[in-house]
Model the fold of this input.
Amino acid sequence: MDPNTSFVLVVLFIVLIWIIKSLNILREYERAVVFRLGRVIARDKGPGLIFIWWPIDKMVKVSLRVITWDIPPQDVISRDNVSLKVSAVVYFRVMNATQAIIEVENYRYAVEQAAQTGLRSVLGEVELDDLLAQREKLNARLQGILDEHTEPWGIKVTQVQVKQVDLPQDMQRAIAKQAEAERERRAKIIAADAEFQAAEKLSQAAALIAREPVTITLRYLQTLVEIGAEKNTTIVFPLPVDLLAGLAGKALAAKKEGS
Done:
């Protein structure tokens, strides 16, 4: 083979390798942070086909998709001295690829450690009842704290949710007893309120009958109609209490006169 031809082939092969190394294809959710002789280029590159001056330029790919990470169960002591195991989930994404690569060595590991620390510190400041009843507020507070810490790294924490709270068995029994006592208290209050309303209505009815004595006769006739509708042979004869009182008074007076 001609030496010139061999030289040309070698040069073409080197050029081909250089082109392959210099051309890169980035997906829609990827960005490239390019370092030229150790200094970062100000603007991120991508997506699509990008060109770098290899080997002068070095490229680091960064994904801009939302990353979901499960915070493992953390041992937390609440403000009212209750030991808990709390697990959560955090969602975050890279907003500035250059900051995420330059400002922190491993942005994902840093976010994970900040999430664990923030979870323990925030939940340790609240009582158990607040943790169980005001979870949305705690999630928003955790998100705000993490977002404040990760903003200089070019990271945006989109959501934090407390996923599970594991209570000791003794505390679960105590909460069950508390709920049962609360239900019994409500039932007694409702029953007492019903008795009060019934007594109030009876008092109003008695006052009305005292003003209009004929109402008791009308009530008696209505009762007879109801009994007759059932084809019952029982006869109800009302004996007024005033009559019994009058008869008792006359008998007592006659007894005194006889004695």
About this structure: The first helix runs from residue 3 to 22. The chain has four domains: 3-63, 67-167, 169-211, 216-253.
